[in-house]
Specification:
- It is a single chain.
- The protein is 36% helix and 21% strand.
- It is of the alpha/beta class.
- A six-stranded mixed β-sheet has the order 1-5-4-2-3-6, with helices on both faces.
Amino acid sequence: MTKRYFGTDGIRGATNSAPMTPEIVLRLGMAAACYFRNGGERRHTVVIGKDTRLSGYMIENALTAGFTSAGMDVNLFGPVPTPAVATLTRSLRADLGVMITASHNPYEDNGIKLFGPDGFKLSDQAELEIEALMDSDSTQALAVPAELGRAKRVDDAQARYVEIVKATFPRQMRLAGLRIVVDCANGAAYKVAPRVLWELGADVIPINDQPNGYNINEDCGAVAPQGLADHVLKYRADLGVALDGDADRVILCDETGRIVDGDQLIGLIALSWKAAGKLNGDSIVTTVMSNIGLEQALAKAGIKMERTNVGDRYVVEAMRAGLANVGGEQSGHIVLSDFATTGDALIAALQVLALLVESDQPASKLLSVFKPAPQVLRNVRYAAGSKPMEAETVKSAIAAAEAMLAGKGRLLVRASGTEPVIRVMAEGERKLVVPAVDGVCGALEAMNR
């Protein structure tokens, strides 16, 4: 059954356009409350966090109205990272966790991610059942006046999360002597990220830590790390850390200004955990986007790499099925299930920093885990509602590119599940990947003319 509201990572869209309207969000709150109320005498609780988008206030209020009208108490965290909501949902024994964010998207968009009481994102079946409740008679969800929910601000949510993250760092180790630039993307971690690094002893240089409701992800953060590289060189820093808008993904920059993606970080952590006997099953989970160079490097060390569809949710599902404790995406979602139930940028960064301190090597040496195979990735936007992948010209261009790469590489063309974008990736011989991507992107761009 096709989902009407939920995509690959919760609900997301342009603010004040379906599904991100106050009316739909109100119905979501009521429906989710009905789904997660499990009887008994105790009060049912939902925790809500958000990033720094202007529209967060509107969506937060609509959700609060929906939950309280259906009899659930609401704990409002304010701006915190997505993994903070996942972790604190379990820590506070809440029935449901909600994060208001559109992750790496521009401020005009917003979204809602839901976490169950175990801190994991919901299954497809759960989302379908909530959608059915949203489209049913909403008056059935209303509580009698004496059983309405209450809403309150939780002032120590950020402090709680900071301590949880710091606890994942080796107890006797410090970051003293390291100069670190952290790009907060003007997003959800603009307070907690610099604080974690500073409290562990680093000399911290925060950038893009002045959110104004509009500048989240704007030419900064994990989606645009060149500014981070410039600051690393300017301040002669040992490392740069770039987060995205909700801080569930991380990209690093070494002291030479070289950008280091999620594949290198996953490889480093997997190899170090394998050497320490901590890598469950000697296997990890990545997606179809991960570079084949990573797979080859891990294979030499006796580590198996399973690939899933794109999306940290699918990575986590495969990790849970196979009991793996390391997984992630090239884009910087890194899931370390010994510590968290979802991608956590700060926890992943601290694991790399611990290895940096332990090795006493420069980041440029430590973070060169494998030589990537030539890979080109381009994004082509399309008009909402159109179906460019069904056009014969696009199908022909894809077939031509696949024939060009046959036996010498691979092509991946997919629609994003979070924005109206077609992602085109080719990997293989350098002389072939650029024309292969150009051909497909040219056909897609012609559809917009």
